[in-house]
From TrEMBL:
Compartment(s): Cytoplasm
Identification of the protein by name: Ribosome maturation factor RimM
UniProt cross-references to Gene3D superfamilies, sorted A to Z: PRC-barrel domain (2.30.30.240), RimM (2.40.30.60)
Reported function: An accessory protein needed during the final step in the assembly of 30S ribosomal subunit, possibly for assembly of the head region. Essential for efficient processing of 16S rRNA. May be needed both before and after RbfA during the maturation of 16S rRNA. It has affinity for free ribosomal 30S subunits but not for 70S ribosomes.
Pfam families with a match to the protein in the record: PRC_RimM, RimM
Lineage per the UniProt record: Bacteria, Pseudomonadati, Pseudomonadota, Betaproteobacteria, Burkholderiales
Organism: Tepidicella xavieri
Keyword Chaperone (UniProt): yes
Swiss-Prot/TrEMBL keywords: Chaperone, Cytoplasm, Ribosome biogenesis, rRNA processing
One GO location term (cellular component): cytoplasm
Domain Ribosome maturation factor RimM PRC barrel: start-end pairs: 123-193
UniProt record similarity statement: Belongs to the RimM family.
Length: 194
């Protein structure tokens, strides 16, 4: 039984991306404090509909606000102090907001804002792309991106001698020649023995 009656059961869209979670209630009018997974959470501001899924791990214990996945319409998202807060249509009071603590927030990739610069990419769009060097040698597939402060690093996985291996390549123009999302390929100035 759901504690928040206005939540609408809905499947995750096929292009859903997990972008954060609900931390706690904020105030008495149903607002929630958010924990975005990105330092630039533009998608949270841009999307008018979010999908919530029950929490996992340490946040899952005692969670009974809803079962499965639900869709919520977003009324407001704003910066407050060093974080973000949001008001969701179906969440009218502090008790309802508190019951959502730990819920995971998903947004359809199609609802992300467009990037201003053609050389800017959402990390989620790079995951799974093949990486080849200028000589056409396959270096691996992007498994993750790792922030290192001044720039991100591509984390590739590849097979060698029957074992999965990891290769790191800085995601900077000195090493990355081109990102071709249509071809699902990144071309780099990098050698297999680096």
């Amino acid at each position: 039984m759901a504690l928040v009656p206005g939540l609408s059961p809905a499947p995750l869209p096929p292009d859903a991306v997990e972008v954060g979670r609900i931390q706690e209630a904020w105030g008495i009018k149903g607002w929630v404090r958010l924990h975005p997974y990105s330092a630039a959470p533009d998608a949270l501001f841009h999307a008018s509909r979010w999908y919530l899924a029950p929490p996992e791990g340490r946040y899952a214990r005692g969670f009974d606000a809803f079962v499965g996945t639900v869709a919520v319409d977003v009324q407001h998202v704003k910066v407050h102090g060093d974080g973000l807060v949001a008001q969701l249509d179906a969440v009218a009071d502090r008790n309802a907001a508190e019951s959502l603590k730990g819920a995971r927030i998903f947004i359809a990739r199609a609802d992300f804002p467009e990037t201003d610069d053609p050389d800017e990419f959402y990390w989620v769009d790079l995951i799974g792309l093949s990486v080849v060097n200028r000589q056409g040698v396959m270096l691996g597939t992007v498994r993750d991106l790792m922030p290192t402060g001044p720039h991100a690093v591509l984390v590739l996985e590849y097979e060698a001698e029957g074992q999965m291996q990891e290769r790191l390549i800085p995601f900077v123009s000195a090493y990355v020649d081109a990102v071709d999302q249509a071809a699902r390929r990144i071309t780099v100035d990098w050698q297999p023995d680096y």
